[in-house]
Write a structure and sequence with these properties.
By secondary structure, the chain is of the alpha/beta class. The protein folds into 2 domains: 141 residues; 88 residues. 50% of the residues lie in helices and 7% in strands. It has 7 helices and 6 strands, in the order ββαβαβααααβαβ. The strands form 2 sheets. A 4-stranded parallel β-sheet has the order 4-3-5-6, sandwiched between helices. It has a two-stranded antiparallel sheet with strand order 1-2. Helix 1 crosses helix 2, helix 3 crosses helix 4 and helix 6 packs parallel to helix 7. The longest helix has 25 residues. It starts with a strand and ends with a strand.
Length: 245
Amino acid sequence: MADVATADRPTLYTIPAHRAFADALVAGLTRRAGRDPLALARALVVLPNNRAVKAVTEAFVRASGGGLVLPRLVALGDPEMGEAVGAALDPADDIDPPLPAVPPYQRRMILARLVSEERAREGHPVDVAEAVRLAGELARTLDQLLVEEVPPTKLRDIELGPELTEHWRRALATFEIVLQRWPGELARLERIDAATRRSALLDRLAQRWRSAPPAGIVCAAGVTDSAPAVARLLRCIADMPQGMV
């Protein structure tokens, strides 16, 4: 890995395109750990997805020779933030944890009910299959907005050509279900959207690490997610004494 950091800048590294990414990453982390056999065991490596975790694990196995204790490998793109993430992102002893996420299937069924009710009110009823399909589209749109931290009300400000105005008006009328009624459904369930919870967990982690950076190596590698919460966490890691991106 090529270091492009300076004393007053974040710690950033690059891996040449012609190198095998996982193997180069493992070689760099091993050199960083030095002769301390437990340095890697104390390390945390943040990766984009479970496929990257598998590739890096296999690279460690290839490079291990006589064997070693692997660092904790975290898939940042894991929507469930489950056991693989562990105490790093979702600590069990958090005194004020974010609300749990609404299950995807339950979310879609509730949105389908709201879509069906709204279309019936407008005089354009839809069958169950169409309501479920539209609910899926609404859920994906809402997730994109939540991940990018764009208020759904911003959709009203988009200026479109006159040929799309009527289509946009009808689509926005349906999306009003989310703007007006979905937050109330979440409050009733005492749940939040998974994308909102993920951003909250990432921001809490960045805040904890700014206050008390981990003693071991923390490396974020291959993460290209442009979500604001991810970008804030990457900046936090790059600024830490033992952090690198």
